[in-house]
Amino acid sequence: MKKLLPYWLVAPYVVHMLVFVAFPVVFSVVLTFHRWNIISPMEFIGPDNYVRLFKDRLFWQALFNTFRFLLVHIPLQIGIALGLAELLNRTLRGASFFRAAFFLPVIVSGVVVTILWQQLLSFNSGMLNRLIAGIGLPRVAWLDDPAVAMYSIAIMATWKNVGLYVILFLVGLQTVPPQYYEAADLEGATSWQKFRYITLPMINPTIFTVVVLSTIGGFSLFIEPYIMTEGGPLNSTLSAVMYIYQQAFQYYHMGYSATLGFFFALLILAVVAIQKRYVEQEI
Amino acid sequence: MSTFLRYFLLMLAAASFIYPFVWMLSASLSSESELGNLTLWPVGFTWANYVTVFSKIPLGRAFVNSVLVAVTTTGLVLISGAMTGYALARLQFRGRNLIFYVIIFTMTLPFQITLIPNYITMVKLGWVDTYFALIVPFMLNSLSILLFRQAFTGLPQALIDAARLDGCGELRIIFQILFPNILPTVLTITILTFMGLWNEALWPLIVIRDEPTMTMPQLVTLFSVGGRADGQLTVKIAAAVMLAIPIIVLYLFFQRHFIRSMASSGLKD
Amino acid sequence: MIKWLIGFIVLAVAGSCSQNEGNRPMVFWCSNNAGEIAFAKEFTERWQRTRTDKPLRFQPIPEGQSSEEIILASVVGKTTPDIYANMWQGSVEMYAKAHVLIPLDTLKGFMDFIRSRCDSSVIREITSADGHIYQVPWKVNPIMTLSNRHALNSLRGIRPPFSYTSFLEAGRQFKQDNNGDGYTDRWLGYTEVKAIWYQRLFNFYPLYLAASNGAPLIVNNRAAFNNRYAVEVFRFLQNLYKNDYFSRERLSATRDPFIDERIATQFSGPWQVSYLEKFKKPGFEYDFWPMPVPAALASGNNPIYTYGDPKNIVLFNTCRDPQAAWEFVRTLVDNQGDLRLMELTGQFPRRKQLDTDPYFTPYFSRNPRTQPFARQVRYIKGVDNCAVIVEVFDIISQEYEACVIYNRKTPEAAIRDAANAVNVLLENNE
Q: How much is the pTM?
């Protein structure tokens, strides 16, 4: 009995893992070789789904959109988060208030944030365009211009998540020993030099964490375009997850959808692996 | 940089994070026809939007569902996570390292790959439109196991030995003797799990079709994209406010814990 | 803990399998709006009184995401009702192909009934590719042009029904920039700009049917819409957007623009009446007209076709007494059933000569608002019987967005590309 005890303790995990991780991984590989609309029997079609994937213009566009999103989202996120963290990284009255304020959007559901921003970004009556018109600039078609819509969503996502990264950077900044800055001051270093040659290298691990976390988060982009634009205009905000969802639950192409999911998952793993090597070398 | 400039920038940033929420609250209390004039305070003050929301969708029921699902699941995550974490941290057995690596692997696995098969599992088990579909897939998670494992590893062996001498079973050791010593970890896991579940919208959209079983995020999403708001904007916004309020209230009470929990989850990767 | 866990799982599985297959009554699912529930209740109770030998109960379809998804889930879980009233005609073929529907033409009395209710073109429309009939044509909501009476009267020389030319001229006159900031804030109309496939059922498709006198999209498993009608519809709509007569921004995410008088026309159906009556401002008046058509059709008294958004009745193969189920369905669609449908739900039965049949004339004279729709019911189409019709509309929708809304393609190229893509889809689906 005593010998078996550890196994009893881990049994729930193992069972759960087998059902919800191991089986799905295996099953999704099997599904990728089938055509299946859920209501009719599964039909083996060999590698057709993969062939179709490589020829599916819309899927590549969805991938491209997702990368476009990341391209704006990640630098913006790091820049703003690092800036705000720098501002906060002093003994400052009210620091906890600012921290709490920046963090507010992080805890609120993406559904709420999306409904809210849909109004703020409205072309005719949105607050943002009223502000812009107020200072005499032309309105921006935030969500209706195919060239702009994805970046609007990236801005919104940044607004939602940046508070978390402010905290992460704060933690990172506090690990930098103050003596380094003192020594630099003696050498007559400028603020920029201190930032570039002391702060940045010291918080490199935090930057990596932020890049990886926002990449993974960005790859799962779904609810924002789902509510705000439904992938439009001209499919410019169709994200990969949204396309997978549509294939499965709008057209019931279960096999094809699983293929997309499988391929996309491999891609994510590859991107994260590359990031890991690159970020660790640079800076 | 001068302190004044520093404060000015911080205030500007804080305003840009808080103002949209104030706007949202005011909009939900404004009358539809005057929304265009809204800047800060409600225009044409009215409660009618909330009355309409509650008459159109069973938001009360969805709130109960959300609480039920989030609380039950969080409880199960704590129990199962502690059991597995304890075994990995304090017990010697064959396969321990294997399990540890599987957990690490699972954490790197994108959810996109398991989404469709998991939906099919739900269908085959007949769990579509039941609470099981919302609870069971989430009742264990790798991050909580790792956090527990780490917390248990840090405790002195003497604590466990003493309890064993007193004749405690392992489950009692975990939940009665050790738990009080790792409360910060327990709180972190509770907050992370609860928040994640409360805000989850994609999975419920997939497995729940039956309105009385829907959780709040799903119901509000469908209300917002569907036609039942009769195109009335302030009503949609009121629904969004109802979804936001519970978590914001919790946040106001446990602000520091929220921030610390989220930060620790970020740093664990 | 482990025992508890196992118990939990056993309980869950047991709970899901406890469908008791005894001598259960037939189950009839109806739509879940108040009017249709009242309708279902009335006819179920009458059946229960007169046919005690064939027990039957009704249930509104569970509220949820969309009725299509709920039906799909019930098919997957084999928990379909015996009778379902409210299936979109476009979904029937997919279920028929999956062999979950009962071919109604094999039932006694069905063919005689259908020939007396519908004319030959409707029967053609509802006949499956395999030659069987899986649906009873039931109710329709014709899509028409809704207009604000005062706004229209303020225009010079524009009298409905609309041709493309007069509609565009109305747009030119009505479009306005109220506050002089360089942006239009009053448009002739709005129709949903989202690319989601079913939105084309409310703009492109009714206009196509109107222009072509009800031509099909698909014939013999090939795209049949690469014609001048479709091209002209695209060009017409493209002009509306190019000149800013229709709003390109999603007004559906803002306050209702029609009630707000920021637009003067909409393509919409009878369901709009009760909505407008509820939310309109005092003195607000509106009318329904046929869809705009090319000039050649607008002159003279030609009938103008449109899309009818047909919802039909089907029997699922989980039904163990199809003949009895059919006999019940028949009570829903006889004269009395159709009259009660209109009285209780404000929707229209799909039967021939609805507007002239003396049985129904008293109803129409009591409800003058419904008359334009009653006349229109003669000239409506559903959708073609095609198992992948959703994807066909999705392809058209993609081209629609690129051409009509964003002017990235000529109408000719857009329609040609859509037709080619549909042909590829249909070939692969054989």
A: 0.85
